[in-house]
Write a structure and sequence with these properties.
This protein has 14 helices and 17 strands. The protein is α/β, with parallel strands linked by helices. Among the domains are: about 160 residues, Rossmann fold; about 70 residues, no CATH class. The chain has a six-stranded mixed beta sheet with strand order 1-14-13-17-15-16. It is globular.
C-alpha cells in the first residue's frame, strides 16, 4: 500500500459502534432547517409561517450556481422563519423551523420518493436531478455535488475516487453504509461516472475495515471500470489530496489547486448513496447517516437521521451522561466543539461526539521541536503560522501559506506544548477574510 508524507496514527476508538447496524432515528417533533448548510451562497426561504409542508418539499431556493436547495425533512407546519445558530460557524443564519404533524401519515411532495427507471438518463439529466435534490459533499466539506460533476472543458476527468476511508477516530457511519448499502452506493457511483463521462473509479477503504472492503468488492462484481483498494490506516487518509496521492500517485497543484486539475473527482461514499436516492428514487437529501458516540453517552450507535433534527434529542436518546463535558459535531480532530446542544443536524453532520474529559489545556510557547512540520501532510510549517497569528501579523501568516492549511489537526495532535494551532489558523483565516472585505 502506498502512502503520503506526514500524518499521524491516533487510536481510532471505533470499537463501540463499528459493529452496530444503522437504525432509523425516531421522527423528530420539530426540525430546524438551516438555509446555510453547504459551501456557497445560503438558500432563500420560500415558505412562510403557518404554511403546511410535505416531506421533500422545497423550502429553501438556491441563490447562485454554488449553492444548494433545502427541502423539508418532515410533514408538518412552518412554525417560524428566523435565525438559528450554525454548528459549523457558530453564527446566526436563516432557518425554517417546522413542527411535525403527528396526527397525519407522512406525505411526500409530488414527484418525490418515486422509484424511476434510470438507464436512459443523459449526463446532464443526472446532474440536474442531483442538483435539484440538494446533494452536497457528505464527508463534511458540503461542497455542492453538481458543481463537481461539471468540470471545465479543459480539465476532463479520467478518474472518480470514492472516499471510504473514514479516517477520523470514533466515527463509523460510513463504515456501516458500506456494509449495509453497498449496492446502492455502487449504483450512485455509476451515476457519478455517467454524469462525468468517465470510465474509471477507485474506491479507497482503510485497512482497518476489512469487512467493508469485502462488501464493496462483492458489490462491484464484474464491473471492470471500478476497483476497490486498501489504504493504510493513517490520518488524514480521507483528505482529497492524500487519497489522490495514495491511489494514483498524482499530486494536486500547490496554492489552491483542485483535484480536477489532475483529472480526478473525489466523492464520499455517503454522497454516492445520496446520489443514488436522488436519481433512482427522486428523493431529495432529507436524511443522513451519523454516529453518536464517545465516553459521554451510554448507548452509542449509528443512525439514519432526518436533516434538522435537534441534536439534544439524539443525545438524550443515546443516554447522555451527567459527566459529559465536551460536545463535538464531527470527529475529535476536525470536528467543531459546541457551546450548546441547541443546534440541528445538518447535511455535513457525520457524527456527534460526547466526551467526559474536556481536553482544553493551558498551552505554552512553541519549543521549535518541528513535530508539527513532520506531521503536516501538506508540507506547511504550522508553528510559524500559529505564531504569526498570535502576533496578529496577517502578512506573515499569509507568507507562511495559511490559506493552504486544511485544518486536519495533525499539528495540534503532536504538539508537546498543547498549542491550539488549528484554532489559531481558523482565527487567522477569519481575520484575513474580514480585512479583505474591509479593503
Amino acid at each position: 500500500m502506498r502512502s503520503f508524507k506526514g500524518g499521524v496514527h491516533p487510536d481510532d476508538r471505533k470499537q463501540r459502534t463499528a459493529g452496530l447496524a444503522l437504525v432509523e432515528a425516531p421522527l423528530p417533533a420539530r426540525v430546524i432547517l438551516l438555509m446555510s448548510q453547504h459551501i456557497g451562497a445560503p438558500a432563500r426561504p420560500v415558505v412562510a409561517q403557518g404554511e403546511r409542508v410535505l416531506t421533500g418539499q422545497l423550502i429553501g431556493e438556491p441563490q447562485g450556481y454554488i449553492s444548494a436547495p433545502v427541502h423539508s425533512s418532515v410533514t408538518g407546519v412552518v412554525a417560524a422563519v428566523e435565525t438559528w445558530t450554525s454548528p459549523v460557524s457558530g453564527t446566526r443564519v436563516p432557518a425554517v423551523i417546522i413542527e411535525r404533524d403527528a396526527s397525519v401519515r407522512e406525505r411526500w411532495a409530488e414527484g418525490t420518493d418515486l422509484p424511476q427507471p434510470d438507464d436512459a438518463l443523459a449526463p446532464e439529466q443526472i446532474r440536474d436531478l442531483i442538483q435539484a435534490a440538494g446533494v452536497v459533499g457528505m464527508g463534511g466539506a458540503t461542497f455542492p455535488t453538481h458543481v463537481k460533476l461539471a468540470p471545465p472543458a479543459d480539465q476532463p476527468i479520467d478518474t472518480v475516487i470514492l472516499n471510504g476511508a473514514e479516517c477520523e477516530p470514533y466515527l463509523t457511519c460510513d463504515h456501516r453504509l458500506m456494509l449495509e448499502r453497498s449496492a446502492d452506493i455502487l449504483q450512485g457511483l455509476r451515476f457519478l461516472l455517467r454524469a462525468l463521462n468517465c470510465e474509471r473509479a477507485l474506491i479507497g477503504i482503510e485497512s482497518n475495515k476489512p469487512d467493508a472492503f469485502e462488501a464493496m468488492s462483492r458489490a462491484v462484481g464484474p464491473d471492470r471500470r471500478i476497483r476497490v483498494e486498501r489504504l493504510p490506516a493513517k490520518y488524514p487518509q480521507g483528505g482529497e489530496h492524500q487519497l489522490i496521492k495514495t491511489l494514483t500517485g498524482r499530486e494536486v497543484p500547490w496554492r489552491g489547486g483542485l483535484p480536477m486539475a489532475v483529472g480526478v473527482v473525489v466523492q464520499n461514499v455517503a454522497t454516492a448513496f445520496a446520489a443514488y436516492e436522488a436519481v433512482a428514487l427522486r428523493r431529495p437529501l432529507i436524511r443522513r447517516a451519523l454516529t453518536v458516540t464517545g465516553e459521554g453517552v451510554e448507548r452509542p450507535g449509528n443512525y439514519l437521521v432526518r436533516i434538522g433534527a435537534p441534536i439534544a434529542e439524539l443525545l438524550a436518546s443515546a443516554g447522555l451522561r451527567p459527566d459529559a463535558k465536551k460536545l463535538i459535531c464531527g470527529g475529535p480532530l476536525m470536528g467543531i466543539a459546541q457551546r450548546s446542544a441547541d443546534i440541528p443536524v445538518t447535511k455535513g453532520t457525520g457524527g456527534l461526539l460526547a466526551l467526559t474529559e474536556d481536553f482544553s489545556a493551558e498551552f505554552g510557547p512553541c519549543i521549535r521541536c518541528g513535530r508539527c512540520v513532520n506531521a503536516c501532510p501538506y508540507g506547511l510549517t504550522p508553528a510559524e503560522i500559529s505564531r504569526a497569528v498570535e502576533r496578529v501579523n496577517l502578512d506573515a501568516a499569509s507568507d507562511w501559506n495559511i490559506q493552504e492549511c486544511k485544518e486536519c489537526g495533525c499539528c495540534a495532535y503532536v504538539c508537546p506544548a498543547k498549542r491550539p494551532i488549528v484554532h489559531q489558523v481558523k482565527f487567522g483565516k477569519a481575520q484575513e477574510k474580514s480585512a479583505g472585505a474591509k479593503a
